[in-house]
Every structure is written in C-alpha cells, then in structure tokens.
C-alpha cells in the first residue's frame, strides 16, 4: 500500500485531551503503538465492494483478500486495546460473514458482545430485491471486564410507555409472574441492538463531501457507551473524520489514520471548526 506521511497535528482542548490524525497505512500506525494503550476502537472499515472511489481502491469481495488485509490488523488492534476496552467494526453484508469468523478467532467467541444493526432509509431501490438499508456493527470486548456506560434514547413516540411518561402514570409491569408498579425512566430506554438513526441528508450542514461519511449521532452513541472522558479512542479507517470530531466534542483523546490524504485534510478542517 502507498505510505503517505504528512503532518501530525495535535489539537488541544481546555481539558488537555489530544486529537492526532495521520495520513499513513493503518498497519504501520498500529505497529508503532504500545501494548494496551487504547480504550476503544471504532472503525467503519473497507466494505469489500471492489470499487475504485477515486481517492482509494476498495478491497475485492474475495475471502483470501479480505483475510490478508484484516487478519494482521485485527491482531494488532487486539494488542493495543486495553483489557477493559472494546472494539466496534462497521461493515455491510458483503464481508460481514468473513469478518465475524476473523473477529471470533482474534478476540474470542466468548468476547462477542453484540451484532448491532444500523438501519436507515432513503436513496435508491432495487426492483427484484429488498432494499439494502442497513450496516452491521460487530462489538467485541477484550475481556469479560469491560467499560460500558448506560445510554438511553427516547421511547417510541405515541407508544404506551411514552404516553405514560408524559402523563406521569404509574404502570403495572409483570416480572416473573409478579406485578410491580413501574414508572418509565425520564431519560428514555436503553437501546436495542438495532439502531434507527437517519442517514445524513444530502442538504444537511453536517455533510462534508466525503462519500462514506457516517452520522455523528451513530458514533456518539458508541463513544458514550464504551469510553469515558479522558479515555483514548482510535479509528484506523478515519474517512471523513467523524470519530475524531465526536471525540474532541466529548473530551476523549483520539488517534486515527487514513491512507487517503484527502481524508486527513477534511478531518483537520472539521476539527478546526470545533470550539
């Protein structure tokens, strides 16, 4: 792979968290990192489309090519992840079956935590198939003792729980055959493992002109759930820089890279805009 080594800007916040982004092959960056130095890894990885996006060439959906690329990187991610850390890898249905096997091998079947489905709508539709409108996010921990914070989302609008919350009504809840009085949590519910978060509207101010950009709301949920302020988060497929931006806003340290120099330019511009 092409190795482009450019500036390594560090953007400091008042809380002294740091954000560092490099235009470099992610395996090279991983090999340079100390053991157990990262609290959380989130990567929106190469999807195996085989397409040339102009700025980078995606992998072909061939098992040998997928394994050759990802296996050494997964081993290094496991090495740099702290014992209380977690890893989230996002992909679509082209390679998720192979990636699940590789992640089981490297992180351990017993450390599999969730298969999260990010579902969305919009865009084109196929005439002879159901529309493909979801990504898969595999979540693994390194050990059984891992960071996980309770995050909550609003109850379904108009549903029974939402109505009870707004009215202040005490509900009856059947737990193991016994009826208990229960009041909905004012902060909402703990999310299921399917997340309906809208794709970024083409006209949204959040758009930065990067084809694979993911919404901040998606990344925020992951970072809030599996890291704390002052922790170090890594993204080795940086893309549009959403992970770096969210980390700066949430007072996390961040280290990330992308082999595409354009991705680093976009990321740095977005970071400069964060107050």
Describe this structure in words.
This protein has 275 residues and is α/β, with parallel strands linked by helices. Helices cover 28% and strands 22% of the residues. It has helices at residues 26-32, 63-80, 96-107, 160-167, 216-226, 242-249, 261-272, and strands at residues 19-22, 38-44, 81-91, 112-119, 134-141, 171-175, 178-182, 194-196, 232-235, 253-257. The strands form two sheets. The protein has an eight-stranded mixed β-sheet with strand order 1-10-9-2-3-5-4-8, with helices on both faces. α1 (26-32) runs parallel beside α2, α2 (63-80) runs parallel beside α3 (96-107) and α5 crosses α6 (242-249).
Q: What are the main properties of this structure?
A:
alpha/beta; eight-stranded mixed sheet; 7 helices; 10 strands; Rossmann fold; globular; 28% helix; 275 residues; two-stranded antiparallel sheet; disordered N terminus
């Amino acid at each position: 792979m092409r190795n482009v080594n450019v500036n390594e800007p560090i953007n400091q916040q008042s809380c002294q968290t740091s954000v560092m982004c490099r235009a470099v092959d992610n395996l090279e960056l991983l090999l340079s990192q100390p053991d157990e130095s990262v609290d959380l890894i989130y990567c929106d990885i190469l999807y195996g489309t085989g397409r040339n996006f102009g700025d980078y060439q995606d992998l072909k959906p061939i098992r040998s090519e997928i394994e050759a690329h990802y296996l050494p990187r997964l081993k290094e991610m496991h090495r740099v992840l702290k014992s209380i850390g977690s890893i989230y890898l996002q992909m679509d249905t082209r390679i998720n079956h192979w990636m699940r096997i590789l992640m089981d091998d490297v992180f351990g079947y017993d450390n599999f935590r969730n298969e999260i489905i990010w579902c969305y709508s919009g865009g084109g539709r196929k005439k002879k198939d159901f529309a493909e409108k979801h990504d898969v996010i595999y979540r693994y921990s390194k050990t059984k003792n891992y960071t996980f914070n309770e995050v909550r989302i609003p109850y379904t609008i108009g549903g029974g729980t939402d109505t009870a919350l707004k009215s202040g009504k005490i509900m009856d809840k059947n737990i193991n055959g016994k009826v208990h009085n229960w009041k909905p949590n004012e902060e909402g519910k703990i999310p299921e493992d399917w997340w309906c978060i809208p794709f970024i509207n083409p006209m949204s101010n959040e758009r930065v002109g990067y084809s694979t950009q993911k919404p901040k709301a998606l990344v925020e949920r992951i970072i809030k759930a599996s890291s704390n302020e002052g922790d170090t988060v890594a993204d080795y497929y940086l893309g549009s820089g959403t992970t770096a931006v969210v980390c700066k806003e949430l007072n996390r340290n961040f280290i990330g890279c992308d082999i595409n120099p354009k991705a680093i330019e976009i990321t740095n511009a977005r970071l400069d805009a964060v107050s």
